[in-house]
Amino acid sequence: MLVACGEYKLEPSCPDYFEADDFGRFSVREEGSALHTDTGLLWYRCAAGMRFSNGQCSGEPLLLSWSETQQFIDEFSQNSNIRWRLPSNEDHQSITEAACRNPAVNTRVFPQLPVENFWTSDNGALGTGTHCMVYTFQGQIACRESPEALHAFMLVSDPD
Length: 160
Hints:
The protein is α+β, with helices and mostly antiparallel strands and 160 residues long. The chain has a single domain, classed as Mannose-Binding Protein A, Chain A, CATH 3.10.100. It has three helices and eleven strands, in the order ββαβββββααββββ. A four-stranded antiparallel sheet has the order 3-4-5-11, with no helix packed on it. A three-stranded antiparallel sheet has the order 8-9-10, with no helix packed on it. A two-stranded antiparallel sheet has the order 1-2. A hairpin with a 2-residue loop joins β6 (51-53) and β7 (56-58). The N and C termini lie far apart (40 Å).
């Protein structure tokens, strides 16, 4: 944000911004999900491929193509008995924190979320041949990504 000529105000890092028990607009659950109270969406608290245990995410996020991402979500849904899906651009924007970055989410809710490009469910600006992604550093969305590109992704479930 431009403050004055040559002076910039940098948003703080989100891991430093949130207090230890500040879950903001979320109700966190012990099994690794968090309910977003504004939208009613249930979010898995780790990037896909990471495992939630003892309040932390461990492991490495999966980096998959668009079609591999869809296959993983279908299989994960069957194994967990929860109908998960890829978040939309709007879903991601609902959890993006404007007051901080690196990553621009509440890191008490989404611990160890990597700064990466994450797939969204939206098709790109050039039609169905491209798809959208969100860059978690500051929450910026871009919609010109090839479906063969490899990206991380999050999981969300709609309210019943």
